[in-house]
Write a structure and sequence with these properties.
With 235 residues, the chain is an alpha/beta fold. It is built from 7 helices and 13 strands. It has helices at residues 51-61, 75-78, 81-88, 96-102, 162-178, 199-205, 214-221, and strands at 3-10, 13-24, 27-35, 41-45, 64-69, 92-95, 109-112, 117-119, 122-128, 137-141, 144-148, 184-187, 197-198. The strands form 2 sheets. A 7-stranded mixed β-sheet has the order 1-2-3-4-5-6-7. A 6-stranded mixed β-sheet has the order 8-9-10-11-12-13. Helix 5 crosses helix 7 (214-221). The relative contact order is 0.13.
Length: 235
């Protein structure tokens, strides 16, 4: 299995995090299973494509899936949300704004704001970070943040227009102001750097965190002729 175990410290406990590398055709996403060591309750972030990997990760961790955290409603981030919720009878959490903008619906769906979510001994802090979509959420667990398509180690998610690009700039500025240098970044995708980079290193390598005003950020984010080779660098 394409996965690795990482540790998160919180309240003098250590949460068990499994990084799941999920593949579908040419696409690769990263999902994250986070397990409370005392209750063995777990949440998963943006599950997609490979149900067997999720099931096996839960078995390996001797854990029970207690919730599904969705950063946004794009298909590669929600693909397994409904079948997993039905199988394990657990809530799907998504922001009010994303539900309204996307129309995503399910009997297990719970609309959330930025009120912390408690699972076992873990405190999960939702952070509204629009830009890539209208209701993108990042999720903090102590000094670790799960960022979906808002913040990658190498860059940030695509923005469809000027308004959303301005929102992305504001969201990244918010993260820059609140994240500690040793906060670990766990994004939905990797373009060269493994999940779990600390924020002080991401600040050095991520071009999109260097802009000081939203107009110059937007001009670069919306520039023409972007491809995989040029998306996250000056060219």
């Amino acid at each position: 299995m394409n996965e690795s175990n990482l540790n998160i410290e919180y309240n003098e406990q250590v949460a068990e995090v499994t990084v799941l590398k999920m593949s579908h055709n040419s696409m690769i996403n990263y999902n994250y299973l986070i397990v409370d060591p005392l209750s063995r309750k777990a949440v998963i972030v943006d599950p997609a494509w490979e149900m067997g990997k999720v099931d096996q990760a839960l078995i390996d961790a001797n854990a029970t899936l207690s919730g599904i955290l969705l950063t946004h409603a794009h298909g590669d981030h929600i693909h397994l949300a409904k079948p997993l919720a039905a199988k394990y009878q657990c809530p799907i959490w998504m922001s009010h704004q994303e539900i309204a903008a996307s129309g995503f619906n399910d009997s297990y769906l719970v609309s959330i704001d930025e009120t912390p979510i408690i699972v076992g001994q873990m405190t999960i802090k939702p952070i509204l970070t629009p830009g890539h979509t209208a209701g993108c959420m990042c999720y903090m667990v102590d000094d670790n943040i799960f960022t979906g398509d808002v913040l990658f180690a190498e860059g940030c998610g695509m923005c469809p227009d000027v308004k959303s690009s301005h929102e992305m700039f504001d969201s990244l500025s918010q993260l820059k102001s609140m994240l500690k240098p040793y906060t670990h970044i766990y994004p939905g995708h990797s373009y060269g750097y493994a999940p779990g980079q600390i924020f002080s290193e991401v600040l050095k390598i991520n071009i999109y965190l260097q802009f000081l005003d939203k107009d110059s950020f937007t001009a670069f984010r919306l520039r023409l002729r972007q491809n995989r080779a040029s998306m996250f660098k000056f060219s």
